[in-house]
Automatic annotation (TrEMBL):
GO CC annotation terms, alphabetical: M band; nucleus
Domain Fibronectin type-III: 286-385, 386-482, 486-587, 685-779
Chain ranges passing through the membrane: none
A Pfam family matched in the record: fn3
SUPFAM superfamilies assigned to the protein according to its UniProt record, in alphabetical order: Fibronectin type III (SSF49265), Immunoglobulin (SSF48726)
Main location (coarse class): cytoplasm
Domain Ig-like: from-to ranges: 7-92, 96-181, 590-680, 798-886
Superkingdom field: Eukaryota
Family assignment from sequence similarity: Belongs to the protein kinase superfamily. CAMK Ser/Thr protein kinase family.
Keywords of the record: Cytoplasm, Disulfide bond, Immunoglobulin domain, Nucleus, Repeat
PANTHER family with a match to the protein in the record: IMMUNOGLOBULIN-LIKE AND FIBRONECTIN TYPE III DOMAIN-CONTAINING PROTEIN 1 (PTHR13817:SF181), TITIN (PTHR13817)
Name of protein: Immunoglobulin-like and fibronectin type III domain-containing protein 1
UniProt subcellular location: Cytoplasm; Nucleus
Taxonomic classification: Eukaryota, Metazoa, Chordata, Craniata, Vertebrata
Length: 889
């Protein structure tokens, strides 16, 4: 019998250790050598079965254990066993790093109130520590540290000044910080406040002291006030301050110092005030006049007066009374009069004699200055003075109501009544209103004996025991008619013109409606700044015209305006403008008003540069000057006035050369204008001059450039020549923009001198002298020798000895080009510009002298820019030479 045994199972792939984060899934896998083999899973020796969150599966020879969401308790050693074979691996579930879900926040707390700092972590099972200003905190009385899951709290039951600081919570290397600021406003204790509020009473000339204790956070500011005016250190005022109290010392107090004393203590968290009172005792002020003569007879004078304005801070004890008979030097004391009386009846007088009385108030501190009466004649009465002019209280068709004020001079006796008189307009006659034997008792009267539409004026006279006094000044004329209705609103109110300081308004008078609104007799104009709620009246008296110009406005300020119609019936309803008005001229886009402004200026170095630009713009524009598109330097002064801007360079330098641009911009638009300023001076002379002969019969003059050539693109050169046989200098070339020139027609045997000048817009430099140039004529001894005849071919194709140079010339200037060519037979020379022949073009001056080919362009134009070619050709060949001309604007 044949028995086939299966081999023992083997692990093709064993379990592997693995690390996962909390909440992540984990999968343990191993592979056996056979498919038909089952096994079991274990954790820490305990067999595992499939459940929620844990799945055990088999796929052929592959066995898996999957944990969907790992927790901390899933950490352990896992084992798989099959047919006595096993494999193990460690699964470690790592807690994630703790994070702050919400950190600490800065907070402010009131002194004495509670404060709570709270933060929340991402895990519940995490502890931490609290710190204040770097020092670790532990629970104590008034400070509680608690933990509720992931929430950590620190609570201070009653905040004090020492609790202000930076608080920090740390957990597993993470930290969060916040500032706790305990707001500690100044405070007064009840006892200190009660003591301070008690009035301080001193006598005149003595010192007064106020002291107040306070608490609160530093720094604190202490201010003292007397009757609302702050007190500062002075001769009679001394202020002391510490961190816990302040003292006010007032020396040499006077009665006028009596009043409210207030202390104000302030810090960053609040302000507190306390009020006390200073009472300075002194003599009273004199009694008030005028003295009234209540009775005057041959045997009695009865006088009355008013109480003094100031009793000196203490109760009056009475009045000291003295009498003098006019004509004598002595005063007789009449005694102390009780305070309540304020009157005295003198019965010891003689008929017809004059008496004068002196009255003084008396209190505990002394006797006041005296009040002296006028001379009173015993038994003779004085008439009262005139009352004030009567005023019209109201007027209707059949009645005019008047009021007036009693005269200040009563004549020393009681006013018994008044007489009233009236007078018509255009009449000189005054007629009584009341019967002469029936004086008006009150200071008002209704005059009914009037004619409708008639204008009247009134005057009043006072009556006392002596009789009728002088009449008052007449009142204003008043017409007997029913009151008028106020006018309506003005119509079509509009702005006709405006400037930076004025506003012109126009309107149409309101319409009349019988019984509703009457005709307007005048107008008031009012304006109000936009930031204010108060209307300001522009005219004190009503204007008759329907136009008005408001002056004194603030430039670019916003105003509201309205017009009020008025008549005898009063003021009508205001009519406002539909919109606000800005104090500025009508909007104008910036523009330059001077059409003759120069756009190019040449200035000698050291001279002043002044550019005046006139413009129009509204509202007032922003004016900016730029030099070469960047802001101007501080050396340049800009002055802006109404409609003009001036740029000034007091002493110009070459570095000031550039394009200056003014930009004028407002709300409507902007405009720019540029001026090119070239600051230059007489140029410096060129460098050494050298001479050379490249072609027979010519001299090429070479020189080093002037030092000013690099900074002055308008600099050019002039060459002068002197023949030794003529002894005079003449110009052979001008407006040269290169450093070379070829002089022709040089005669052998003559000596030549050359001078080179640098020139610009300012002038010409000193010349640079060349060495003497000359060729001596040599004569050989005449020997006749018949040469052996040999044929000689002198022909040659064209060849350029001196090539054309590159040229750069400003627009409008000359340009001179030259080259040297040789060849036999004499070559034919043709000039080309961009492959177009120039030999027949009259705008170019072309010459060919002894092989020196030249071309002159009198005025360089933009179209002259490009390539220039010289072609020389004869029967033996052809040669070309090219250059390029650049035209600069």
């Amino acid at each position: 019998m044949l028995i086939v045994e299966e081999p023992g199972v083997q692990f093709i792939c064993k379990l592997s250790d693995m690390n996962v984060k909390v909440s992540q899934s984990a999968e343990l896998v191993c592979n056996l050598s056979r498919d038909n083999c089952d096994g079991a899973w274990f954790k820490d020796g305990n067999k595992l079965l499939s459940r929620d969150g844990l799945t055990i599966s088999k796929d052929g020879a592959s066995h898996k254990l999957k944990i969907d969401s790992c927790g901390a308790d899933d950490t352990g050693k896992y084992r798989f066993e099959a047919e006595g074979r096993k494999t193990e691996a460690m699964l470690i579930v790592e807690e994630p790093e703790v994070q702050f879900i919400s950190g600490l926040s800065n907070m402010n707390a009131k002194f004495g109130q509670s404060a709570e700092l709270v933060c929340k972590l991402s895990r519940d099972n995490c502890n931490g520590a609290w710190f204040k200003d770097g020092n670790k905190l532990l629970p104590r009385d008034g400070l509680t540290i608690s933990k509720d899951g992931a929430c950590h709290k620190l609570k201070i039951d009653s905040c004090g000044a020492d609790d202000t600081g930076k608080y920090r919570f740390e957990a597993e290397g993470r930290k969060t910080e916040a500032m706790l600021i305990v707001e500690d406003p100044p405070r007064f204790s009840e006892d200190a406040l009660a003591n301070f509020c008690k009035p301080v009473i001193v006598k005149a000339g003595q010192n007064a002291s106020f002291k107040m204790l306070f608490e609160g956070g530093e720094p604190s500011k202490v201010q003292w006030y007397k009757e609302g005016e702050e007190l500062l250190d002075d001769i009679n005022v001394k202020l002391e301050k510490t961190s816990s109290h302040s003292r006010l010392l007032l020396s040499m107090c006077q009665r006028k110092d009596t009043g409210e004393i207030k202390i104000k203590v302030k810090n960053d968290f609040g302000t507190i005030e306390a009020v006390s009172k200073l009472i300075v005792l002194d003599k009273p002020s004199p009694p008030q006049g005028p003295v009234e003569v209540a009775e005057n007879s041959a045997s009695c004078i009865n006088i009355k007066w008013r109480l003094p304005k100031d009793d000196g801070g203490s109760e009056l004890q009475g009045y000291a009374l003295e009498r003098q008979q006019v004509g004598r030097n002595t005063w007789m004391k009449l005694g102390l009069i009780p305070t309540a009386a304020a009157a005295y009846k003198d019965t010891k007088v003689e008929h017809g004699r004059k008496y004068c009385y002196r009255i003084s108030a008396v209190n505990e501190e002394g006797v006041s200055e005296s009040m002296e009466t006028e001379d009173i004649i015993a038994g003779i009465k004085a008439y009262p003075g005139p009352p004030a002019p009567p005023k019209v209280a109201s007027a209707v068709n059949d009645c005019i109501n008047l009021t007036w004020v009693a005269p200040t001079n009563t004549g020393g006796s009681h006013i018994l009544g008044y007489n009233l008189e009236k007078r018509k307009r255009s009449s000189n006659m005054w007629s009584p209103v009341n019967p002469q034997d029936e004086p008006i008792q009150e200071k008002k009267f209704a005059v009914k004996d009037v004619i409708v539409g008639m204008a009247y004026e009134f005057r009043v006279s006072a009556i006392n025991v002596a009789g009728v006094g002088e009449p008052s000044i007449p009142s204003d004329f008043v017409t007997a008619r029913d009151p008028k209705k106020p006018p309506g609103k003005v119509v079509d109110l509009k702005v006709t013109d405006s400037t930076y300081t004025t506003l012109s308004l126009a309107w149409t008078k309101p319409t009349e409606e019988q019984g509703v609104q009457d005709e307007a007799k005048g107008y008031f104009v009012e304006i109000r700044p936009a930031e204010s709620l108060d209307w300001n009246r522009c005219n004190t008296n009503p204007i008759i015209m329907t136009t008005f110009t408001v002056k004194g406005l603030k430039s670019m300020a916003v105003y509201w305006a309205r017009v009020i119609a008025t008549n005898d019936g009063g003021e009508g309803v205001p009519q406002d403008l539909d919109n606000y008005v800005i104090a500025m001229p009508p909007p104008v886009r910036p523009k330059f008003t001077d059409g003759k402004i120069k756009s190019f200026m040449v200035v000698r170095a050291g001279n002043a540069v002044r550019i005046n630009i006139n413009f129009e713009a509204s509202p007032w524009p922003d004016v900016v000057w730029l030099k070469d598109s960047v802001p101007i330097s501080k050396r340049v002064t800009v002055s802006n006035t109404d409609g003009m801007s001036q740029l000034l360079i007091p002493s110009s330098e070459r570095s000031d050369t550039g394009v200056y641009t003014i930009i004028i911009k407002n709300l409507i638009g902007q405009e720019t204008f540029s001026v090119e300023i070239r600051v230059t001076d007489d140029p410096k002379p060129p460098g050494p001059v050298e001479l050379e002969e490249n072609v027979s019969g010519t001299v090429t003059v070479n020189w080093e450039p002037s030092p000013d050539e690099k900074r002055d693109d308008r600099l050019h050169y002039m060459v002068s020549e002197r023949d030794s046989t003529k002894q005079t200098w003449h110009t052979v070339a001008d407006r040269l923009f290169n450093n070379k020139f070829t002089a022709c027609n040089i005669i052998p045997g003559h000596e030549y001198n050359f001078r080179v000048y640098a020139k610009n817009d300012m002038g010409m430099s000193e010349p640079a002298e060349s060495p003497v140039w000359g060729t001596t004529r040599t004569r050989d001894k005449f020997v006749v020798k018949m040469p052996e005849y040999r044929p000689c071919n002198l022909e040659s194709p064209p060849a350029f000895l001196v090539s054309l140079k590159m040229h750069t010339a400003p627009e409008g200037y000359e340009c001179y080009m030259s080259c040297a060519v040789a060849g036999n037979p004499r070559p034919r020379v043709t000039w080309y510009h961009d492959n177009v022949s120039l030999n027949t073009n009259t705008n170019y001056y072309i010459s060919n002298t002894c092989g020196v080919c030249s071309m002159l362009i009198l005025r360089v134009r933009p179209k002259d820019h490009g390539e220039y070619t010289v072609m020389a050709e004869n029967t033996l060949g052809r040669a070309e030479c090219s250059t390029k001309l650049t035209v600069r604007e």
